[in-house]
Amino acid sequence: MSRVLKSARLAGAIAAAAGLVLCAGVALAQPQGKIKVGLMLPYTGTFAALGTAITNGFKLAVDENGGKIGGREIEYFTVDDESDPAKAPDNANKLVKRDQVDVLVGTVHSGVALAMSKVARDNNTLLIIPNAGADEITGPLCAANVFRVSFTNSQPGLAMGQVMAEQKKKTAVTITWKYAAGEESTGGFKEAFEKGGGKVVKELTLPFPQVEFQPLLTEIASLKPDAVYVFFAGGGAVKFVKDYAAAGLKDKIPLLGPGFLTDGTLEAQGDAAQGLLTTLHYADALDNPKNNAFRTAFKAKAGRDADVYAVQGYDSAQLLGIGLEAVKGNLDSEAALHKAMREARIDSPRGPISFSKSQEVVQNIYLRKASGGLNKVAGIAVENLADPGTGCKL
Ligand code: BEZ
Question: How far apart (Å, rounded) are the C-alpha atoms in residues 223 and 281?
């Protein structure tokens, strides 16, 4: 055999072997097995019902897709974060390092979410935030692997401040648990209310998750503002609304808040919540086909009515699904995955949503009125509100 022919054969053999290796490489790169989803949410404490609703909403979307996302089955890993920021780094690391999850989904409490997003950034783990609104997460702390499907804390506050200023209210008092979410929410209210000519005359706080409201109610009664704007959610919201009515303030000084004040809580609040005005990116009674179908399916699955937290859990899974479909279930195609998620257009029960450059949801903020067992739409307070993402370098 001539040297030329020999070397041609050798080259062919090498090429064939390389081809096999390549094929094997491709085969290995094909996504295998289940996608590991780490749910880090509160399942005990004042936000327990919120964590459960998010979980049920997420699982509903997966079930509706035949138990798969992006063509792959899901394996869940769950941690109760107890809404405790001190335990958050360890809890997030359990999911990322011990369980080696592909995706983190969480959480409700802003302080916990800030710690969780650091773990996600440090380990480059995809994080989808289904509630916690800490402004910084889609501001200076934004990252390519961090998405939020809920809101920025200041947004509902800004909307309500604007509405109250338009209604020519002159003075207001704010009350909140003293932590990022409450301070940003009441801060948003104050900014818009004072820009519109009003004045916040007192900013009252108590530590999270305390519910000893009596001294604060006594102070409100003596200050007699035109309105009271409060940030409370879950069990704390139930108690505050009932205490406010029991103190005889409900018919004297309008009680306002972001919609967390009356979301998922109306049944427990009873008459004390009737007529309360709140601002939020969702209302139970939004009449669109997606919301109607969602509420029926959620009730059948969870045995209770859907609320904003259920919607946010559902949309977290929808967002992940859009990303994974685009990369055929291959989480290693990071840039394409993030791009598809950033460009997602989601048919949400709250109405159509998209994402800003800082990977925060863009959506309507509704003015709602509690009536019977539902938060009903009283108007659109701000249309297509986009978080400015101040300080985000994406
Ligand atoms: C938060 O901590 O960001 C939060 C908690 C409950 C409802 C809304 C926001």
Answer: 31
Q: Strands, E, within 7-88: which ranges? A: 35-41, 68-69, 72-80
pLDDT digits (tens, 9 = 90+) for 46-77: 999 999 999 999 999 999 999 999 889 999 99
Contact 34, 76 (CB under 8 A): no
* Per-residue buried b or exposed e for 193-228, using 16+ beta carbons within 10 Å of the residue's own CB: beebebebeebbbbebbebebeebbeebeeeebbbb
Confidence band of 184 (pLDDT split at 50, 70, 90): very high
How far is CA 20 from each of CA 27, 31, 283, rounded to the nearest angstrom? 10, 19, 56
Pocket of ligand 1 contains residue 176 by CB under 6 Å: no
Residue 133 Cβ < 6 Å to ligand 1:
yes
The partner residues of 172 in beta bridges, in order of sequence, read 200, 227
Closest CA to 152 of 124, 122, 113, 190: 113
Beta carbons of 230 and 240 less than 8 angstroms apart = yes
Please identify, by atom number, the ligand 1 atom nearest to the C-alpha of residue 179.
2
Type and span of the H or E element at 182:
helix 180-195
Contact 166, 389 (CB under 8 A): no
117: closest CA among 137, 93, 144?
137
Side by side, the strands of the sheet bearing 35-41 are 68-69, 72-80, 35-41, 103-105, 126-129, 146-148
Round to whole Å and give the CA distance between 196 and 273: 27
Q: Residue 244, exposed/middle/buried by CB under 10 A (0-12, 13-18, 19+)?
A: buried
Structure confidence by residue, pLDDT tens digits, 128-173: 999 999 999 999 999 999 999 999 999 999 999 999 999 999 999 9
Which residue's C-alpha comes closest to atom 9 of ligand 1? 132
- Distance between CA atoms of residues 301 and 39, nearest Å: 18
Dihedral angle of Cα 388, 390, 392, 394, to the nearest 10 degrees: 40
Which helix (H) or strand (E) element contains residue 228? strand 227-231
Do residues 123 and 95 touch, judged by C-beta distance below 8 A? no
> Average pLDDT for residues 97-112, to the nearest whole number?
98
CA–centroid distance, 47 to ligand 1, in Å, is 9
